[in-house]
Amino acid sequence: MADAHSKEIDTISGVETTGHEWDGLKELNNPLPKWWLYIFYATVVWAIGYWVVYPSWPLISSYTSGVLGDSQRADALAAYDAGLENRAKTGEQLIDASLEDIRSTPELLEFAMASGQAAFGDNCAPCHGSGATGAIGYPNLQDDKWIWGGTLDDIHQTISYGIRNGNDEARFGDMPAFGRDGILDEEQVTQVANYVGSIAGLEAEDGVDLEAGKTVFIDNCASCHGEDGKGMQELGAPDLTGSNYLYGKSIEAIKNQVNNPRNGVMPAWAPRLEPSTVKSLAVYVHSLGGGQ
Amino acid sequence: MNAQMKPVAAPQDEDAWFASAKKIYPMAVEGTFRKIKWALLFVTLGIYYFTPFIRWDRGPEAPDQAVLIDLAGRRAYFFFIEIWPQEVYYITGLLILAAMALFLMNAVAGRLWCGYLCPQTVWTDLFLWVERHVEGDRRERIIRDKEPWTANKVARKGVKHFLWLMIAWWTGGAWVLYFADAPTLVVDLATGQAALAAYAWIAILTFTTYTLAGHMREQVCVFMCPWPRIQAALTDDDALNVAYRWDRGEPRGSLKENKKLTLEGLPAGDCIDCYQCLHACPTGVDIRNGLQLDCIQCGLCIDACDTVMTKIGKPTGLIGYDTDDNIKRRAEGLPTSYRIIRPRTIVYAVIILGVAAIMAFALATRDVAGINVLHDRNPIYVELSDGTVRNGYTVRFLNKEPSERDFVLSVDGMPKESRIEVVGVDKTVDGKPVVTVGRDQTREVRVLVFSPEGVTMPKSTPVTFRIFELASGDEATANDFFKAP
Q1: Residue B416 and which of A167, B124, B277, B474 are 20 to 30 A apart at CA?
Q2: Nearest chain B alpha carbon to A9
Q3: Cβ of A106 and B219 within 8 Å?
Q4: DSSP-derived secondary structure for B237-302
Q5: Any stretches that span the bilayer, and where are they (chain A) (predicted)?
Q6: Superfamily of domain B369-483
Q7: Which ipTM score applies to this complex?
Q8: B19: distance to nearest CA of chain A, Å?
Q9: pLDDT digits (tens, 9 = 90+) for B300-322
Q10: CA dihedral in degrees (B65, B70, B72, B74; nearest 10)?
Q11: Is A156 annotated in some ligand binding site?
C-alpha cells in the first residue's frame, strides 16, 4: 500500500504523504522514531518475563503461579500476622498494668478502647446490644445503674467469671420463686408487688393494702434488697427504688418476677478470651460513661 | 515563515514508517548565552545535590533537615513549613504557580524553561560537557564514530560512559536523600545498611538519568514532552523567541559569493551559510527555518552566530531574541518595539500573585491546633438515675506544633451547671478538663457531657466544642449537638 501511493509529497510541509485521504485531508508520513518500536518490543519481552515470574495465566482449576511464587493473599496474611504480633506486644503491657494505670495512660487507653470495642462487638453485643444499651433481661451498660457494681474492678470481675453460670468464681445471687414455690400467696404477691411499685414511683392498683405489702417486703425481700429497697450489689439484688428494672418496670412485671423470677445468666469470659482482651473490655465498658 | 522552509527529504525506502534518530553532535560555543547556561547549571544542580544537607532546627525529636519528605512519619518539611497529609492541597497551589510561571515565561521570552532550566536540558548539557572533554568536540566525535574500533576509541567511550553513570548515580543518590535524614542515609548507603527501597530508587534514577541525558537527549523534547505542543499554542506575535532575522540575512551565500554580489550592486544578506548555528544546536534544528517544535530556544545558536559575525566584521544579532511582530515591522521599515506589559502577561502575573497570596495567607494562618468531634450514634443519649442526660462524643485533638501542649476543653451552648468529663483525663483547670497532646500528634479521647440536674434539655441543643491552649491562646472549635429525650 505504501509503495503505491507514497511518492506524493505535500507541497506545504515538504513531507511525504501516506497516501491515505479522508475528505481531502491527507495524512503526512512523519515516521515514528525507531526506538519507539524497540520500546514496544521491550514491553513484549517484559510481558513474557512477567508471565514466567508472576502469576498470570488462568488454567482450568488453578493458574500459573510464576517462579517467584508471589501471592498477594500470602502478603496480606503475613501483614495480618505482623499486625497480630504487634497487637500482642501492647496486649502484654496491658496484662502487667493495673486497670487504673490503663485508664490513665493515653497509649494504653487508646489501645484498650479500640480492642475493647472490637471484642465487645464480637462477644457482648448479641445480648447487650451494639451500643451497650441492653434490652429487657440484659442490663444497659451505658447508664449509671449497676447490679453487680460499676467500678473498673467490679466490671472486670463480672466479665471474667460471669453470673450464675456454674463457674466457681461467678457472681451468684438467687431470688426465690415466692409465688411458684408457695412461699407467698397470691394476695401477698399482689400486695408486695404494689408496694415495690410504689417505692419505684409507679401508681398502685386500686384497693391494694400497701402497708401489708410493706410488711411482706420487710419479711421476705429486705434481707437482700434492703429495708429501704436500695438493693445490695454483693448479692446482685437491684435497687428497687429507681429505674433499674431488668425485666420491665410495671406492677405486672414485678408480680411476674416475684411469682416466677428469672435469674439471668452471663458467661464467664476469662476462660474464653485473652487476659488482655478481658481487661480491654473492662476499660471499654467502664468508659462508656456509667463507670464509677 | 514557511517560505523559508527547506523541503525535508521525503523517506524513499519502502519501510519508512519508522525512522532512526539522526545522531546529533553539538559543537562547543562560547558567548553570553553559554555563560548564562553554565551559571544556571551550577545553581540548579547545586540546589538539587546539596539541599538535603541543609539543616534546620525544629527542636528536639523533630527532624532537623530543611527539606524532607518523611513518608513513614507522614510529614513534609520545607524550612519553616510543615505539612500534614490532609494539607496536600498546598501542592495544588504549587502546581498552579508552576504552570502559571511557565505560561508567563513563555509570554515574555518563549521557551526559557526548556532552554535553561528543564532538568532534561541541564543534565544533557552536563553530559555533553563530559562527552566533549573525553571524546573531543563535534568534528573529532564525528570522525571517531566513523573509525573502526581501536583501543583509544574503546577507552574514550568507556571513560565517557563510566563518568555518565557516575553522574547518573549521584543524581539518584541525591534523590533518596530528600526522603530520609541525609547525613545518616549517606553513611547507611555506603555501609550497605540502607533500606532496599533506597537502593532501588537510586538504581531507577541512575538508569533514567543515564538513558535520558546520555542517549535520548533531544528525542525526549521532540517525542516525549508535551510542552513543545502546548507552548506552540500559547505563544503570540509579541513573545520574544530565538529567531533568525531573515530580513537581514537573506539572500544567504558564502562570504565570497556575497562579496561578489555586493560588488555587482546586487542584494546580499549577512548570512554566510556557515552552518555554525546548526552545528551548535543540541537538538539539530536549523534556526533559519523559523520557530519550530524541535527548538528548545537555548540560545546557543545566537552565541555561535555572534562569534562568526564578529569574525567577519558584521554586527552581531543576526540570530537573536526577537518577536515575530518586530521581524515583520523591520521588513516593512517600521520601528521595532517590545511590549512586556500586555494583557497576557498581566493576566498570568495577576494569577501568580493571587495564588501566591492565597497560599501565603493559608500558611500564615495555618491552624496549629485542631479538633474533630463525632457524636455517639448508639445510644444518642443516656438517661441517668438522677434525671440528668448524658451524651458521648469521640473527640480528636490535633497538635501541629513541635512541642507537647495542654488544651483546655469546654463546650459552649450548654446550661451553666453542666459537666464535661474526659475518659482517662483527671487534670482540670477551672473545672474544665485539660488534655495533653504530644508534639506533632493527634489524640483521640472519649468525652462525656452531662446536663445539669433539674434542667429539662430540649430534644436537640447546638453546642460548640472549644479547645484553648493557655500558653499560646491557640483555639479551635467544632460544632455538634447535645441530644435529649
Answers
A1: B474
A2: B10
A3: no
A4: TTS-EEEE-HHHHPSP--HHHHHHHHHTT----S-----HHHHH-TT---GGG-S-TT----SHHH
A5: 35-53
A6: Immunoglobulins (2.60.40.10)
A7: 0.80
A8: 5
A9: 999 999 999 999 989 999 999 98
A10: 130
A11: no
